[in-house]
């Protein structure tokens, strides 16, 4: 009886906490995944006339299935007269790619993968758990910790030969943009020297503390606290929902064991001498037991106990809105310009609000001094989200042993600076320039023997 009281008190307490942080009209609640197939899951076949094929593949990340595109270059045409039984088939080096905060593979990553695959590299582009074609609930759980785990799972999958014998497990590169530009640096810093062929970190998120300071400067303290409040609100709802489910399960277990106990006990009054000895006590105990049994029988089944839908915050919004990234109307248009017309999984520009509690302590720049693989940084000089000065600083933090040597002269990392804003780096001339540099860099480090040159700008006309 005491533990039942305790649980009810805990339930009351959690409800009180929920009320203390009332639902915010700028947040949304719940997210229904849409499993209808979209263009993102259509394969690309040789009939499409491209120099590669693309199919969807899957790998496991911590018990959840992640969806990925696998681009495979078409084998070079055999010269006339060759019977195909010549030397051993070459293996394709593999570039692993994933998107930035709240985004999924169909949002502009095809353009980069198209250029890399056109240059003879296999490319695996994956969706984080709970995004796009990947499984996992609650949907749109953006989290540096979880995304890093997905990156590690993707790398393990490729390195262990999960793609098949025609893919080279020794020549693997990582490519990440924006939030993922930081993830690839963290994951690269954990690998043994020589185990990664190349890393591309494009307009990367590097420093959570600096990003938070800049955010507070831009929005003001009150708006910044509202961001944190949204995160606490979502966490509390998740905790309260979990607690309610546990209470429901516990009460049902009680109900079952109470019933079993009463069925075993001798019914009251059958043995007169027992009544004589335990008297009123026995009566009270039995009535109490029967009452509890009756009450517990009225319990709704565990599955119909209320579930508090998680709270979602906008990942992009206009200046003044409660959103992770506040953009001008022009920048907001640039953000959506790289998107498809139909979103896989029923994507909306929202993520779980609990993200706001995790991001300020996430600073991939701390990992940079331990990255031994060759790195190419791309920065945007007018980037307000991931400032170019930080990227320059990161390039200088690469260890002196970092071997990026290009024909003898060694430099620590390569840095390409684009004269544009964050989201403009995915569009037009900036996209072409960035992609051209990346293709050259990746070929140099992953396919040193390749001698054909692929015109990048043609590959971009999609
Ligand atoms: C009634 O209780 C007495 C004393 O506890 C016991 O000896 C006796 O066997 C009981 N009779 C029945 C029918 O249970
Ligand atoms: C699910 O997605 C498909 C394809 O994008 C769309 O036609 C359909 O309306 C969506 N369903 C819901 C319930 O939103
Ligand atoms: C750096 O790379 C070049 C070319 O790949 C190689 O010849 C050289 O030995 C490497 N240097 C170090 C210190 O690893």
UniProtKB/TrEMBL annotation:
Q: Which residues form the Serine aminopeptidase S33 domain?
A: 94-211
- Record's keyword terms, sorted: Hydrolase, Signal
Q: Which GO terms describe its molecular function?
A: hydrolase activity, acting on ester bonds
Signal peptide boundaries: 1-20
- Listed InterPro entries: AB_hydrolase_fold, FrsA_esterase, Hydrolase_4
The record's section on Pfam families has: Hydrolase_4
Q: What is this protein called?
A: Serine aminopeptidase S33 domain-containing protein
Q: Which organism is it from?
A: Volvox africanus
């Amino acid at each position: 009886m005491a533990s039942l009281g305790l649980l009810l008190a805990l339930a009351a307490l959690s409800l009180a906490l929920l009320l203390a942080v009332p639902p915010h009209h700028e947040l949304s609640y719940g997210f229904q995944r849409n499993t209808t197939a979209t263009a993102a899951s259509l394969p690309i076949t040789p009939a499409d006339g491209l120099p590669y094929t693309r199919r969807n593949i899957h790998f496991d990340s911590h018990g959840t299935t992640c969806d990925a595109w696998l681009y495979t270059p078409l084998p070079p045409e055999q010269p006339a007269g060759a019977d195909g039984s010549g030397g051993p088939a070459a293996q394709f080096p593999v570039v692993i790619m994933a998107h930035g905060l709240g985004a999924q593979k169909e949002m502009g990553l095809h353009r980069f993968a198209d250029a890399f695959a056109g240059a003879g590299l296999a490319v695996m582009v994956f969706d984080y758990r709970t995004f796009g074609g990947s499984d996992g609930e609650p949907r749109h759980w953006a989290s540096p910790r979880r995304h890093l785990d997905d990156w590690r799972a993707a790398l393990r999958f490729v390195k262990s030969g999960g793609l098949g014998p025609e893919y080279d497990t020794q020549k693997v590169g990582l490519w990440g943009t924006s939030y993922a530009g930081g993830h690839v640096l963290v994951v690269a810093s954990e690998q043994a020297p020589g185990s990664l062929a190349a890393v591309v970190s494009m307009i990367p998120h590097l420093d959570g503390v600096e990003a938070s300071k800049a955010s507070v400067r831009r929005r003001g303290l009150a708006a910044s606290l509202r961001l944190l409040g949204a995160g606490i609100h979502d966490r509390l709802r998740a905790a309260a929902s979990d607690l309610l489910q546990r209470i429901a399960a516990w009460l049902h277990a009680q109900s079952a064991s109470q019933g079993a106990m009463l069925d075993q006990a001798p019914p009251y009054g059958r043995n007169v001498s027992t009544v004589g000895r335990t008297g009123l006590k026995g009566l009270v105990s039995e009535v109490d037991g029967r009452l509890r049994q009756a009450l517990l029988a009225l319990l709704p089944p565990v599955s119909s106990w209320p579930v508090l839908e998680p709270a979602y915050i906008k990942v992009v919004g206009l200046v003044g809105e409660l959103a992770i990234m506040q953009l001008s109307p022009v920048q907001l248009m640039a953000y959506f310009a790289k998107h498809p017309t139909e979103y896989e999984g029923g994507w909306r520009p929202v993520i779980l609000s609990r993200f706001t509690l995790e991001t300020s302590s996430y600073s991939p720049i701390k990992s940079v001094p331990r990255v031994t693989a060759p790195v190419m940084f791309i920065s945007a000089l007018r980037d307000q989200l991931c400032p170019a000065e930080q990227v320059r600083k990161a390039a200088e933090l690469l260890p002196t042993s970092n071997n990026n040597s290009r024909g003898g002269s060694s430099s620590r990392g390569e840095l390409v600076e684009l004269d544009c804003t964050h989201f403009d780096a995915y569009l037009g001339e900036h996209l072409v320039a960035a992609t051209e540099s990346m293709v050259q860099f990746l070929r140099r480090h992953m396919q040193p023997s390749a001698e054909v040159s692929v015109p990048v700008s043609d590959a971009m006309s999609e």
